[in-house]
Amino acid sequence: GENVGLHLPTLSVQEGDNSIINCAYSNSASDYFIWYKQESGKGPQFIIDIRSNMDKRQGQRVTVLLNKTVKHLSLQIAATQPGDSAVYFCAENFSRKGSARQLTFGSGTQLTVLP
Amino acid sequence: DAGVTQSPTHLIKTRGQQVTLRCSPKSGHDTVSWYQQALGQGPQFIFQYYEEEERQRGNFPDRFSGHQFPNYSSELNVNALLLGDSALYLCASGFGTTFTNTEAFFGQGTRLTVV
User: Fold this and answer.
1) Are A110 and A9 in contact (CB under 8 A)?
2) Per the CATH hierarchy, to which homologous superfamily does domain A10-94+107-114 belong?
3) CA distance B108 to chain A (A)
4) What is the pLDDT of residues B63-88, one digit of tens each?
5) pLDDT of A32 above 60
6) Which chain A residues contact residue B39 at CB under 8 A?
7) Does B25 lie at the interface with A, CB-CB under 8 angstroms?
């Protein structure tokens, strides 16, 4: 993922609605993806992960979809709650041959839940 | 079960000084990675330590160095601080170097301000 500077994409949703956050990843060799939630002043918090041999994975209120053809990830949050307001990052995980793995983060999306 | 812990939480340093940040991994984890997160951006990978050796390094100058101790805890050292080093420094722990079967758990971060 590339940094887009100080301007984060934003998404505002009404409480109770579903949210969809999108992410384009950069490396076709990436084989493991993670979604993180980051609240102000805190470290990223793991939400859900998916391997490249899957195209969908569900957790509690969250679903991640992976489209390897277009290198696209999405995070769906059902029945969005005020506590879901945060910045959401996708991260791709790959390993160059002979090297250890590292996470590469996308630019993040600011989700705001409206009452 | 303690998660990833980092110290200190906040730090103010003067340009040209040196700083040491500390990280204790989640219990059972043996890999520590460090990330730099500038305001409004996603975390950027600095390096990863496993078995007390640097295994992978991101695009950061040699002013950034680290160490891992036998108890798996780690330090990040930054020499000759620049104003641009001001950021949230995050530590993530995992098991092994693959991350394939484990989530990367992040600490709360150390907020470094260089003046």
Assistant:
1) yes
2) Immunoglobulins (2.60.40.10)
3) 4
4) 999 999 999 999 999 999 999 999 99
5) yes
6) 6
7) no
pLDDT 10s digits, A83-111 = 999 999 999 887 665 556 678 898 899 99
Two tokens, residue A41: 């002043």
Residue with more model confidence, B61 or A98: B61
* Residues of chain A with C-beta less than 8 angstroms from the C-beta of B42: 1, 3, 89, 91, 105-108
Q: Residue A63: enclosing H or E segment and its boundaries?
A: strand A62-67
Give CA–CA dist A74/B97, Å, rounded: 26
Contacts of B98 in chain A (CB under 8 A): 95, 101
* Residue B110 three-state SS: strand
pLDDT of residue A107: 84
What chain B residue is nearest to A9 in terms of C-alpha separation?
Answer: B40
**A&B contacts, CB < 8 Å:** 80
Does B5-114 carry CATH code 3.40.50.150?
A: no
Say whether pLDDT at B50 is over 50: yes
For position B101, what pLDDT does the model report?
A: 46
Domain boundaries, chain A: 10-94+107-114
- Comparing A109 with A1, the larger pLDDT belongs to A109
